[in-house]
Structure formats: structure tokens, C-alpha cells
């Protein structure tokens, strides 16, 4: 699905990461159950992720100074452990579990899809994850980024316009020469407001196979693809 | 050459770029002579590069606000063109020539050496070049960075400690777990002051084959290698 007339050829594909590139839900389930097999891993993963937006909002409101996602993840982790009967976790266990976000597995189409897309485009992350997290994740999972861009570079979290426009500035391009690729309509809508092109990727199992997500197309997006391989087909890569 | 007792195993190799990874001198000669075959390309390359440190010093002193290398390169370019009888260069020629720094060629050992080093280490840039410049260069030359770090991320130019310590912070490591790889003793000395390990790379032709550079070892460095392949040998990659 694509608009018949593409006004500008995008040069940069900037990818949202959590949910779009990697399957955070099943990876967090795996990691917490490796430490405590009896815990309700699915509920734990959802609770941890649910703290993510409110934590970033505390940074963007100025209540917290600039704080990286690694540190926000740790604040949320410490706050939810008691609800799951895990408040006896040692400091070492907490540190190890907190870096589970560096060890998220990519969706099955991702490495092959990115490799094809990289042949015609510069591919970079545009994630609220910090640079170290994204680099460690890429190294473990074999994600072939040309460049790791992060909220940490811009000192602003998506959906702040400084992030989307920051990608264009880094590459000295017009916003329309950058395309955000994401599995979240709100992220794409904010990018579109800044003049970026957008590609929606269906990730129906983002919150677990038992809780399928609405992946209906929004005609406002430039592209809509089932996965990265389908996007590569559409973009002639 | 290496010290017999390595106190800490480095996890990150951070690379200086201009002169260490890429041969700016002969690449700039090629680019300017492609526009004007009769110009003294070697003198032109040296003059352009000679403006680099003073321009960064104007930023770090506060005389200029934060300014990327692309923009500093342009200021220097405009100032030296008249000396070479090139003040008739069009705006399009100036813009094209200014991005010659995105099109620098790597030394012959670089791609193979980095590929080997990447198998055991996280490899990143630590350059005063801006992120877009470094990413475009890597894409053209096939440099397989895990991550592109730049003065632009830290809003400070080397040898400011914020750059060397910034790499350690990004990866949540102690400074001694980071190694700077560079062909410049002053860059390495500043990194050592911050607690980083250091590897010196010989690039005798950095300023042109006609002006060989002193590449004597300094025993203060952790490693000294002829090129990236020799460094990979020393680091068992």
C-alpha cells in the first residue's frame, strides 16, 4: 500500500526500536522467568513496560533532569518487584535483569529486512533507548545499523519534535527526506507533524500473542507493511 | 609491543578517524584536483587541515557557539580559496568540495582490520567529525562501526575530557575498559589522562608521502601497532 505519487525520495530510514525491531514482550518474559520460573512473566513484562511513558513524561516535564532509559527502567523495576513477590531480588539480580532491555530478540524478519533496506538507504535507529543499550542490542542481535541515533543524542524523548527533526539535521536533509518506520501510530503521527515520511509496520503480537494489537492501516502514512521484508519489497530493495 | 601485564580487559575500542582511519591528505588532493586539475592539491589539503584546530578552539573558547565540523570546514574553505586562486568557485562547487570530508578513503588495512577487531570488541568512532559526516563516510567506505560517536554527541571537541569520559559513560564502563586508537600522540595522551587505555597506529604518510611523520613509539601507550591488522594480531582478534 502506498500513495501513487511519492513527492520526495527518502534517503534515511529511521527506525523505532522497542516493539518495531525487537519483541520486548517475549524477551522480558524469558529473562524474568530465567531468574524465577514461577513468576507471571507476561504480567511482569506488561507492568514494566507500562511504567515507561510516565517515567519519560517526568523527564520531559522537568520533574527529573535528563535521565537515560537504563535508569528509568531501573526506577520502574524497583517499583514493580514487590507486586510480583520479587522484592528479595539482590542488587546483582536487579542489575542483570535491568539490562534485559539490551538483550531483546528481533522479530524474525528484521535482520534480513534491514540488510535489504540498507542496500538503498541509510538506516538508523530513532529510539528512546540510550546509545549503549541500542549498541549492545545491535551487537547481540546482528542489527546492521549505519548509525545509532537516540533520544540521548537530542536530550529529548519522542514524541518531542527535536527528535524527528534532529535526524534531518544530523544528515543536513529536509524532513521529507527522512522516513520514520514504526509499529506505533502515535509515533508516526508526531513524525508526520514534523514533515517526515512514515511507514507503519504490523506487529500484532507486540503485547503478547494472547493480546493481539489493532494493526489497521492509517491512510495518512506513506507506507503500510506487514514486516520489514514487505517494506523492502515496497521500496524496491 | 605491549605491556606485559594488562590490568583490565578493554571492551570498547574508540577510534580517532581523520588520519587514523582515513587518508584525508590524498583524498582532499583527489577531490580538489577533480574540480581544478592545475591547483597545488597537496598545499591545498594541508592549508585546509591547518585551519581545523584553530576553528575548534574558537568553539571551545566560547567565541563561537556549538558548531559542527561541516560548518567549520566551510568557514576554513571560504578563507583559503583566494590563496589558491579559487575564489571564483560557485556556491555549488563549494558545497560539493566541503563534503569531500564525507568521501575520504580508508587506509588499505582498515576495513579488514576493523572487521577482525569487531569480532571481539565493540568498535566505535570517537571523532571531532559530525555524526552525518562519519555515517556517510562509513557507508561509502564500508567501515563496520557498531556505533558512531562524535564530538556532536558530547558537544565538546577532543581533547576535552568530556569526549573520552563520554564514551565510558555511554557504555556504563570504567574509563580503563575503553581504549582509544589513534595516530596522534596528543590525542592519546589526553585520553590517558582520563584513564583510558591507548593504542598508537603508525600513519607515516598522513601529511603526504613527501612529508613523512615521526611515528616513534611512546612507552606510555598500552599498544603500538603499524596498522589495524597488526593491532588485531596483538589483541588476538
From TrEMBL, chains A, B:
<dbReference type="InterPro" id="IPR036412">
    <property type="entry name" value="HAD-like_sf"/>
</dbReference>
<comment type="function">
    <text>Catalyzes the hydrolytic dehalogenation of small (S)-2-haloalkanoic acids to yield the corresponding (R)-2-hydroxyalkanoic acids.</text>
</comment>
<dbReference type="InterPro" id="IPR051540">
    <property type="entry name" value="S-2-haloacid_dehalogenase"/>
</dbReference>
<protein>
    <recommendedName>
        <fullName>(S)-2-haloacid dehalogenase</fullName>
        <ecNumber>3.8.1.2</ecNumber>
    </recommendedName>
</protein>
<dbReference type="InterPro" id="IPR023198">
    <property type="entry name" value="PGP-like_dom2"/>
</dbReference>
<dbReference type="InterPro" id="IPR023214">
    <property type="entry name" value="HAD_sf"/>
</dbReference>
<keyword id="KW-0378">Hydrolase</keyword>
<dbReference type="InterPro" id="IPR006439">
    <property type="entry name" value="HAD-SF_hydro_IA"/>
</dbReference>
<comment type="similarity">
    <text>Belongs to the HAD-like hydrolase superfamily. S-2-haloalkanoic acid dehalogenase family.</text>
</comment>
<dbReference type="InterPro" id="IPR006328">
    <property type="entry name" value="2-HAD"/>
</dbReference>
<dbReference type="Pfam" id="PF00702">
    <property type="entry name" value="Hydrolase"/>
</dbReference>
<dbReference type="GO" id="GO:0018784">
    <property type="term" value="F:(S)-2-haloacid dehalogenase activity"/>
</dbReference>
Amino acid at each position: 500500500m502506498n500513495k501513487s505519487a511519492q513527492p520526495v525520495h527518502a534517503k534515511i530510514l529511521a527506525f523505532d526500536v522497542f516493539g518495531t525491531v525487537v519483541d520486548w514482550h517475549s524477551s522480558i518474559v524469558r529473562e524474568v522467568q530465567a531468574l524465577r520460573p514461577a513468576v507471571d512473566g507476561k504480567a511482569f513484562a506488561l507492568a514494566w513496560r507500562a511504567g515507561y511513558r510516565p517515567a519519560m513524561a517526568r523527564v520531559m516535564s522537568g520533574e527529573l533532569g535528563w535521565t537515560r532509559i537504563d535508569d528509568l527502567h531501573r526506577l520502574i523495576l524497583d517499583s514493580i518487584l514487590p507486586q510480583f513477590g520479587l522484592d528479595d531480588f539482590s542488587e546483582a539480580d536487579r542489575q542483570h535483569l535491568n539490562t534485559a532491555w539490551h538483550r531483546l530478540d528481533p522479530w524474525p524478519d528484521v535482520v534480513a529486512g534491514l540488510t535489504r533496506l540498507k542496500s538503498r538507504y541509510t538506516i538508523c535507529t530513532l529510539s528512546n533507548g540510550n546509545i549503549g543499550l541500542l549498541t549492545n542490542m545491535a551487537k547481540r542481535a546482528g542489527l546492521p545499523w549505519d548509525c545509532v541515533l537516540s533520544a540521548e543524542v537530542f536530550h529529548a524523548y519522542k514524541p518531542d519534535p527535536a527528535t524527528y527533526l534532529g535526524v534531518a539535521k544530523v544528515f543536513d536533509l529536509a524532513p521529507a527526506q527522512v522516513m520514520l518506520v514504526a509499529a506505533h501510530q502515535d509515533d508516526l503521527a508526531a513524525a508526520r507533524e514534523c514533515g517526515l515520511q512514515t511507514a507503519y509496520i504490523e506487529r500484532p503480537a507486540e503485547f503478547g500473542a494472547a493480546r493481539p494489537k489493532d494493526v489497521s492501516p492509517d491512510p495518512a502514512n506513506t507506507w503500510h507493511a506487514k514486516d520489514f521484508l514487505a517494506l523492502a519489497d515496497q521500496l524496491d530493495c
